[in-house]
């Protein structure tokens, strides 16, 4: 039993991939997929009972969809979609990352001794007639995570859309923790700050999409493999919660709250007024981010990352106890009694209830209830909140590049 529990916890390390790291705030073009190596070495992995066969077995998924890209879910951790690269298209599972600009995929040139490349689809440019060599070296910030490769140029096809001449990175070395990831690479949906056009910008130039925006719907059904949709060029009203019109029997889609994108950092970064944890039973409420704080939307994982001091305070209030790898747990029978937490954006409440910010994970007979809140230990990030799937699955998000703004609206419950 303990072994199983440890196995689950170990996989939670996945969740940590995609967290920021202090270096990247200074080099915002690349958002480091920090795998938190410290928590895990191969000896530990063995000890913790991670079996590669088991991982492999859970690595089979299908794709459907149109310009709306079907997202799939891996262990309630990652959201990824299918992308074809080259001619004729080689298929990859890609994370659609709103907090990263550079698109990349594991290269066929990745040596077999690099464990992180195992069990992944690899891009082979010799098999693509549309490949154009570039070769400029890519080294992740500070080179500290062994994410290295070189730039190439090829065609990307997603659903019914196609972009020719996309610059991307072929990774020839990735950290070994990538064996825990279902994704073969990343589609960078960040905001352009550098010379290279991120994927969506090339797509816009092609003119095949209707509006200069994309939207992300993450499904709330955590049991389902379908993680949601990325909609390129449109907002699908069916994903928006409907509200009744007074004095009639009609309902209309709820209003989208838009916030200006700030910072010029390349992230979808915006201002949050504050966070309030309500404890009606004690006639009390506990505010965080009292003077406002910077917030980033992150579509690649499920957690909500915040300043250490605030997260510790929230965990004390909801009686969460530290588990492993920076995650905390609550007793499962308390989930429904936990206080609601309001994220106040542009003066409006975006409220998460207990079951929405607690991840209930089952593995065999073991069930764990993990807080989605994770604290950032990076000193430069102590006034930043990063809202991942726990938030984005309740609120359909709109990334409006044309108007330099980001929108949120309560998601329909289907
Ligand atoms: C996945 O695809 C295979 C073959 O194309 C099909 O047999 C299977 O039913 C599909 N699974 C899902 C979950 O759609
Ligand atoms: C997908 O998009 C194409 C072109 O925009 C359209 O003709 C087709 O009907 C769409 N298919 C579905 C299943 O929505
Ligand atoms: C690679 O791409 C960069 C950026 O577009 C360009 O400046 C450079 O000249 C290219 N190198 C080659 C060898 O094509
Ligand atoms: C990076 O690679 C080197 C040599 O391949 C290895 O010794 C080191 O442990 C790796 N570091 C990380 C953080 O993966
Ligand atoms: C633009 O999109 C169309 C349809 O998806 C595709 O056929 C065409 O090659 C694309 N052009 C460029 C320049 O990406
Ligand atoms: C990528 O290759 C295409 C030719 O297929 C070329 O038109 C385009 O300029 C290249 N893009 C970059 C950024 O070098
Ligand atoms: C709403 O529906 C009810 C029952 O169908 C009906 O009695 C009522 O008149 C309707 N109200 C309005 C404002 O249409
Ligand atoms: C909360 O406030 C209400 C009204 O002020 C009061 O009646 C109630 O006793 C208070 N409850 C607690 C737990 O303090
Ligand atoms: C947000 O909700 C709290 C209670 O949960 C309420 O006290 C507060 O007035 C609400 N704020 C707004 C702006 O609606």
From TrEMBL:
Keywords associated with the record: Disulfide bond, Signal
Pfam families xref list: Asp
Annotated Gene Ontology cellular component terms: lysosome
GO biological process, one term: proteolysis
Domain Peptidase A1: 79-409
Domain of life: Eukaryota
Keyword Plastid recorded: no
Database matches in PROSITE patterns: PEPTIDASE_A1
InterPro entries: Aspartic_peptidase_A1, PEPTIDASE_A1, Peptidase_aspartic_dom_sf
Leader peptide range in chain numbering: 1-22
Protein name per Swiss-Prot or TrEMBL: Peptidase A1 domain-containing protein
The organism of origin for this protein: Ignelater luminosus
């Amino acid at each position: 039993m303990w072994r199983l529990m440890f196995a689950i916890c170990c996989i939670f390390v996945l969740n940590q991939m995609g967290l920021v790291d202090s270096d990247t705030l200074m080099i915002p073009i690349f958002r480091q997929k920090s795998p938190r190596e410290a928590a895990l070495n191969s000896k530990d992995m063995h000890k913790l009972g991670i079996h590669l066969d088991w991982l492999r077995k859970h690595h089979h998924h299908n794709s459907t969809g149109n310009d709306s890209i079907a997202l799939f879910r891996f262990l309630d951790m990652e959201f990824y979609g299918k992308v074809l690269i080259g001619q004729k298209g080689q298929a990859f599972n890609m994370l659609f990352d709103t907090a990263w600009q550079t698109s990349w995929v594991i290269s066929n040139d990745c040596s077999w001794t690099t464990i992180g490349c195992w069990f992944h689809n690899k891009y082979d440019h010799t098999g693509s007639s549309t490949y154009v060599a570039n070769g400029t070296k890519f080294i992740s910030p500070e080179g500290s995570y062994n994410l290295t490769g070189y730039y190439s140029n090829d065609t990307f096809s997603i659903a019914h859309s196609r972009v020719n001449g996309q610059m991307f990175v072929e990774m020839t070395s990735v950290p070994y923790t990538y064996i825990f990831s279902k994704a073969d690479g990343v589609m960078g949906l960040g905001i352009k700050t550098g010379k290279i056009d991120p994927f969506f910008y090339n797509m816009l130039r092609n003119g095949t999409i209707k509006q200069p925006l994309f939207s992300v719907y993450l499904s709330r059904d955590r049991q389902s493999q379908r993680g949601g949709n990325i909609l390129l060029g449109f907002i699908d009203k069916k994903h928006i919660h409907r509200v009744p019109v007074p004095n009639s029997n009609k309902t209309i889609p709820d209003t989208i709250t838009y916030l200006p994108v700030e910072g010029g950092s390349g992230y979808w970064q915006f201002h949050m007024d504050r966070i309030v944890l309500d404890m009606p039973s004690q006639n009390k409420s506990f505010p965080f981010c009292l003077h406002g704080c910077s917030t980033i939307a992150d579509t690649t994982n499920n957690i909500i990352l915040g300043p250490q001091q605030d997260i510790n305070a929230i965990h004390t209030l909801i009686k969460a106890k530290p588990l492993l790898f920076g995650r905390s747990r609550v007793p499962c029978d308390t989930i429904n009694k936990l206080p609601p937490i309001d994220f106040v954006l542009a003066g409006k409440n975006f409220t998460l209830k207990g079951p929405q910010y607690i991840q209930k994970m089952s593995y065999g007979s073991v069930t764990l209830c993990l807080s989605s809140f994770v604290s950032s230990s990076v000193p430069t990030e102590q006034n930043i909140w990063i809202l991942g799937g726990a938030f984005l699955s309740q609120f359909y998000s709109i990334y409006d590049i044309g108007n330099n703004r980001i929108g949120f609206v309560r998601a329909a419950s289907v």
